[in-house]
Design a protein that fits this description.
Blueprint (H helix, E strand, L loop, with lengths): L2 E4 L3 E6 L3 E7 L3 E7 L4 E7 L17 H14 L8 E6 L15 H15 L4 E6 L5 E6 L4 E5 L6 E2 L1
Parallel strand pairs: 1-3, 6-7
Antiparallel strand pairs: 2-5, 3-8, 4-5, 4-6, 8-9, 9-10
């Protein structure tokens, strides 16, 4: 079994028996999509909710709107059926205490919300999520089973 690593503002796909992982999700969101029949999945590590708010938005994996679209494009190109795709998300933590209702401090929640909206627009059901709170996460997607492992320092392993 190979481990495929996804960096920050990056995405990739994998097939069983391999697994795919991304480290250090703070306010970022790890979005896993997979087809449970052909056992093909993908993972994106998105940093920001909306590419249209940025001038320099050439890295499509950095944003929820363009990253999720690209992820779906790649898993379907590899043989997944878009109608069977399901998703799980993790991350979106509030890593810094910011006074008032600053949008900077709430980027994690905005990332999670943008991810939910984009999945809904694409007709991909969100089966489970582990978002918010104030700690970072590392995630692993196992396309063979669809299990999404969430690891965090000082917390027990969560599988969604």
């Amino acid at each position: 079994m190979a481990t495929i690593k996804v960096g920050m503002a990056d995405l990739n796909i994998c097939k069983e028996p391999d697994m795919i992982t991304t480290l250090g999700l703070g306010s970022c969101i790890g979005i896993a999509v997979y087809d449970p029949v052909v056992k093909i999945g993908g993972l994106a590590h998105i940093m920001l909710p909306d590419s249209t708010q940025m001038r320099n938005n050439s890295n499509i994996a950095k944003f929820a709107d363009t990253g999720i679209e690209e992820l779906v494009k790649r898993v379907t190109a590899a043989g997944a059926n878009k109608r069977r795709l399901v998703a799980k998300i993790a991350g979106g933590a509030k890593m810094f205490q910011v006074s008032g209702m600053s949008t900077i401090g709430n980027v994690g929640e905005r990332n999670a919300q943008a991810s939910r909206i984009k999945l809904k627009q694409l007709g991909i059901p969100l089966l489970a999520e582990d978002t918010g709170l104030n700690y970072g996460r590392t995630v692993e997607l196992y396309p063979a089973t669809g299990e999404f492992y969430i690891k965090a320092v000082g917390k027990s392993l969560k599988i969604i």
